Give the backbone structure.
Amino acid sequence: MIKGQRVVCTNDTFTPTVRAIYQQLPRKGDTYTIREVFLGRERIVKGGDSATVGLLLHELVNPPDPFHKGGEELGFSSERFAPLEEASPGEASELEEAEIGAGKTGHWAN
């Protein structure tokens, strides 16, 4: 996952503690834009050999992490998100041409 990438939330189950300290939480099925990517603190806090990748999102802004001396903003685990499948401009125009050729009007079903 990289800055500027669009992602969709796949997991919006949070503990009561998380709900109490965050001001804004992602919702399953909603799309977001990655504002920042950072290394999670599990390795430092828990002494493990690995760490998760954290994300800050343009659409959601939260207060500083109360457990971080540097006052970094509370973020989200990248494991809660999946890359959004978006057609490239070339693929989009090919799809439109195929639909026009097939007699489709371009209206989408609700």
Notes: Strands lie at 6-9, 31-39, 53-57, 76-77, 81-83. The two ends are 31 Å apart (CA to CA). The helical segments are 16-21, 42-46, 89-101.
